Amino acid sequence: MVGTEQVPVTVLTGFLGAGKTTLLNRILTEQHGHRYAVIVNEFGEEGIDNDLVVDADEEVFEMNNGCICCTVRGDLIRILSGLMKRADQLDAIIVETTGLADPAPVAQTFFVDDDVASRTKLDAIVTVADAVHLGAQLGEHHEAEEQIAFADVVLLNKTDLVDAAGLDSVETRIRKINPYAKIIRTTRCEAELNAVLGLDAFNLDRVMEFEPDFLESDHAHDHDDDITSISFVSETPLDIEKFQKWFGKLLQTRGQDILRSKGILNFSSTDDRYVFQGVHMLMDASTMGAWPEGKARNSRVVFIGRNLDSMGLKEGFESCKAA
To answer: Which of 28, 245, 254, 317 is most buried (most C-beta within 10 Å)?
Structure first.
């Protein structure tokens, strides 16, 4: 890639907990020989996702505490402009949006900002969809519907947790919103990478059909103001049994209001980092290996959902500290 050729950009979107980071880690670890720059956006003050992205040769840029289409859009343009100064060293750029982002203003950036438009090319919008929760999300969250509507490819993920009838039903709902997108059924986002990258699939004419104001700089989009995030950090190691007891009860009793939970934990009984990721009442936890040399050993957790202030999260988290 030389001169003024446009660098292709894949926008990776999907609602909270669908599996975007899982897909991103596959892209960064498989032997494909390509050079990627990755831009990760988070909802909330305490960044977690950047640490969940595997250590790789590719550069990872983090933007947090805002919707990528609003408060940090200037950061997106700034990072892209910086990357263009060495475009000859890149094969592509991947932008992973927060799960609460409407992808329309993200995609718009590649057409309305002259510098970005001249040096980059929106290759495709890839939406990771949670086969278990998508049906409910579409009914409750405008952003979930927009993520499907703008998709060139939908990875229907977690298909191992849904029966055949349920999968057919959720595919029908996707088709009603977006009859053009290619749907790929996956477990843990195990799709061929050539099915999600290098597609040259974004079609502006199709988008203009259902979003006639797409290229207007003040393109309106909605946010669910009922959803907030809260995060905590503990420099004191946690007791694993106390944490499991508290967190298990929390998900059982309040999981419907917790859209997303995730964290990296420092337990007193082990030298390994633990990572957990939850969606409503479902939770997955595993070790991440030893703490990196020179990196502070602390515990960081993030919750995204409704009515978080009424859950006693700070007190519950504090109660898990090791004696």
So the answer is: 317
Q: Which domains does the chain have, with CATH numbers?
A: 7-210 (3.40.50.300), 228-318 (3.30.1220.10)
Contacts (Cβ under 8 Å, ≥6 apart) of 224: 100, 140, 141, 142, 143
For strand 282-290 and strand 272-279, is the pairing parallel, antiparallel, or unpaired?
A: antiparallel
Q: Taking the C-alpha atoms of 136, 139, 145 and 147 in order, what is their torsion angle to the nearest 10 degrees?
A: -30
Q: Of 157-171, 184-198, 215-229, 237-251, which gets the smallest average pLDDT?
A: 215-229
Q: Helix/strand/coil (H, E, C) string of 57-92? A: CCEEEEECCCCCCCCCHHHHHHHHHHHHCCHHHCCE
pLDDT per residue as tens digits for the range 19-65: 988 898 888 888 888 888 888 875 544 444 555 544 444 456 655 44
Burial 182-221 (b: 16+ CB within 10 A, else e): ebbbbeebebeeeebbbbebbeeeebeeebeebeeeebeb
pTM of the model: 0.72
Shortest CA distance to 14 belongs to which of 207, 151, 109? 151
Closest CA to 257 of 221, 300, 224: 224
